[in-house]
Amino acid sequence: MHASPRRPEPPPPWSSTCFRAGAHPFRRLLRKCRRGVLIVTDRYPQAEVPGFRFDGPQLAKTPGGNGLVRRLAASELRLYQWMAAHVPLLVIRLDIDEATAHARKPDHGLDELRDKIAVMRRLRYNGATIVDIDARRPYPEVLAQALAAIDGALASPQTGPASAVASAQRRADQTPPPDRI
């Protein structure tokens, strides 16, 4: 389910040992994809913003350091670049504002949420097809749009996920929410 003509070389074998949490599950995911299994995840590796709060290389937060730390940081970055080079068929990005995010996750600080929201909106996932869904909408609408995007991505490159989501959005706008039926 991935499409990328040029991928960087895999990271050195020892980096898999150091960064087991990322490399081994990702390799299993790739094996399943090659067998035709549809994989749905709630995160995907990104290497666009190293050292950010989530989903990317974390050792970039420690600039400098001794030679070992620099080598580990460089290896971790290569690992994330290698993973991110496997472009997913579809990324569904749930867009949200800081007030709604804070209401749902009050243990997260507003500054942290603002940073996450700003960075998420900039991520391009190595050119993957991205469908943005307004996560402030009622859950049944968000779910319908996500499923429509998946159906569109799997069905036909001509219609694609964006038109499937637009159709789902039109249906959601014409149908009252379940609590009003």
From TrEMBL:
The keyword Nucleotide-binding applies. Keywords: ATP-binding, Nucleotide-binding. This is Conserved ATP-binding protein YghS. Residues 157-181 are annotated as: Disordered. GO terms for molecular function: ATP binding.
